[in-house]
């Protein structure tokens, strides 16, 4: 199978690409920044948020290799950043539109990465897929995901585009510790508690549904197979562990995995945050046979072990750099290759290397 992944340099994109390669599939990625984790697959450096004219075999005048399905993960994903800089929410919508136009013209089905943020905080105790309501949008980030879902539903109705929408929830583990670029709570806590530094918990009563990366990837892979085979299509599905944990408990479990006592300061939740979410995953189980395997305590042990092994194998410089990224790419009017684009080629016939650090915790599906 041929899979095109946008956002292929991120945590989910990297793990998904390596899993698909290990399963024998062909992978091509698109991202605006270099993948600092692996060089095992070919990808294009391209900013998808430009205002590009329609192009039948790619985006922005650039040809993409044929694909059986597109997994659209590319997005600005920092909730608080999008609150401070709301134009980035618009860029999320533009990215999704550009990818949808490519899928419409090529007849390629799409898997879209949405978020638990679409449920807002008003309906926090009702998490069936039909309970999301745009009237309760908590942030510009959640608005961008709601808009992305709406675009997908409209393309399905107007153009017959087949899709799956996955609503993720606090995915953690392996390839998520690039804190200088993307400050995620679990790798941040792992680093600070490991350094005996204090941590701040914004919302001591906050309850979230943390999803270990292998469970998330297993759900996506099941969705890819079902969508391409025509067994499941045009569905919106929660993909999470299905159990809530407070941030206080999560911090305590990180401390236990590190053998350290966390130094915790409690503070009110930040603007735009969802303070209570536990996913209903019945639909994922019924349609895809999805059954998450890794509870939070075990997942954090794996995450800490991976983070420690990666740090030993890749000592951080004095000032940890942010992954290089392209500036905004503008497609030339003559339709030639857009300025600033570049391809990253994987070594020929290279499978995912275990030498990169601890590899995926694989299990039979």
What percent of residues are in strands? 15-25%
Named at the architecture level, the CATH assignment is: 3-Layer(aba) Sandwich
Query: Uncertain runs with pLDDT below 50, 5 residues or more?
Result: 320-340, 348-365
Name the structural class: alpha/beta
CATH superfamily: NAD(P)-binding Rossmann-like Domain
- CATH fold label: Rossmann fold
- Biggest beta sheet summary: 8 strands, mixed
Query: Ends: how far apart?
Result: 18 Å
Q: Determine and state the CATH class.
A: Alpha Beta
What shape does the CA trace take? globular
Count of helical regions:
9
**Overall residue-averaged pLDDT value:** 84
List the secondary-structure elements in sequence, H or E.
Answer: EHEEEEEHHEHEEHEEEHEEHEHHE
Features:
alpha/beta, two-stranded antiparallel sheet, globular, 365 residues, 9 helices, Rossmann fold
């Amino acid at each position: 199978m041929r899979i095109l992944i946008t956002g292929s340099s991120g945590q989910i994109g990297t793990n998904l690409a390596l899993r698909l390669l290990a399963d024998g599939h062909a992978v091509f990625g698109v991202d605006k920044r270099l993948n600092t984790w692996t060089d095992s697959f070919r990808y294009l450096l391209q900013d998808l948020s430009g205002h590009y004219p329609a192009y039948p075999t790619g985006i922005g005048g650039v040809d993409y290799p044929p694909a059986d399905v597109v997994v659209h993960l590319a997005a600005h994903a920092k909730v608080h950043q999008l609150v401070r800089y709301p134009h980035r929410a618009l860029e999320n919508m533009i990215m999704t539109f550009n990818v949808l136009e490519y899928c419409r013209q090529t007849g390629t089905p799409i898997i879209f990465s949405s978020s638990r943020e679409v449920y807002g905080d008003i309906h926090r105790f009702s998490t069936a897929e039909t309970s999301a309501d745009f009237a309760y949008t908590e942030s510009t980030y959640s608005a961008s995901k709601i808009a992305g879902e709406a675009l997908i539903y409209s393309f399905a109705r107007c153009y017959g585009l087949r899709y799956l929408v996955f609503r993720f929830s606090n995915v953690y583990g392996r390839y998520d510790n690039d804190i200088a670029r993307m400050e995620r709570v679990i790798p941040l806590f792992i680093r600070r508690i490991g350094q005996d530094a204090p941590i701040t918990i914004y919302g001591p009563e906050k309850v979230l549904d943390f999803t270990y990366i292998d469970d998330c990837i297993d759900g996506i892979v099941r969705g890819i197979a079902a969508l391409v085979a025509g067994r499941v299509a045009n569905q919106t599905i929660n993909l999470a562990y299905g159990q809530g944990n407070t941030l206080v408990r999560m911090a305590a479990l990180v401390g236990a995995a590190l053998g350290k006592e966390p130094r915790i300061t409690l503070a009110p939740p930040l603007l735009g945050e969802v303070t209570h979410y536990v996913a209903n995953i019945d639909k994922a189980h019924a349609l895809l046979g999805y059954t998450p395997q890794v509870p939070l305590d075990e997942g954090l042990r794996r995450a800490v072990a991976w983070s420690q092994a990666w740090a030993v194998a890749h000592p951080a410089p004095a000032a940890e750099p942010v992954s290089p990224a392209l500036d905004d790419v503008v497609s030339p009017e003559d339709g030639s290759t857009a300025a600033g684009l570049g391809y990253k080629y994987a070594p020929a016939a290279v499978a995912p290397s275990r030498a990169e650090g601890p590899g995926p915790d694989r299990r039979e599906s």
